[in-house]
Design a protein that fits this description.
single chain, mainly alpha
Length: about 170
């Protein structure tokens, strides 16, 4: 029985080898197809990046945001899109885009710009938190200046609230 099984085993091995060989060729074809699709997508990305950067330089932030949104799979493009939304005064939408950025080398920019968007939205505590987190990553004079400015503004608001409460109590007691 061993002599009968060996040719069958060898034949089966040859068949499996041929399947893998064909599968390997098919995989190469699929890989090349995938690369060409990516290359084509890369060309479109290049075009969109060029258009978006030009629009941003021309201060056409709406067009820039639209062009950057076409390359939304890229964190750098997402950051630029968020910046374009910020420049349009669309702080809430910019913050959503900033939150979607995961690339570590963009963390400082994401946090600093989020701090700016929170500040423009009147969310002082969130802004302070963003600037503090940004400053843990990198020393930056602008971030430090903005942080100190917001902390002073927060203290003034707290003092004003306390003053208003004291005045209300005085009026009640009179």
């Amino acid at each position: 029985t061993t002599t009968v099984l060996l040719p069958i085993d060898a034949g089966l091995g040859v068949v499996i080898f041929c399947i893998f060989l064909v599968a390997e060729e098919a995989m190469k074809l699929i890989f090349l197809l995938f690369i060409s699709i990516n290359a084509q997508a890369g060309l479109f990305d290049f075009f969109n990046i060029h258009q978006a950067n030009k629009a941003y330089q021309d201060k056409d932030y709406k067009k820039a945001a639209t062009q950057f949104s076409k390359i939304d799979h890229n964190d750098a493009a997402r950051l630029n899109q968020a910046n374009s939304l910020y420049k349009q005064g669309l702080y809430k939408q910019a913050l959503i885009k900033y939150r979607g950025i995961k690339q570590e080398d963009l963390a400082f920019d994401r946090l600093y710009n989020s701090g700016n968007a929170y500040a423009k939205s009147g969310k002082i505590n969130e802004s302070i938190n963003s600037y503090e987190a940004a400053l843990k990553l990198k020393k930056d004079d602008d971030a430090l200046f903005n942080l100190e400015l917001l902390k002073k503004q927060k203290r003034r608001r707290v003092n004003k609230k306390d003053k208003n409460i004291k005045n209300k109590k005085k009026k009640k007691n009179n």
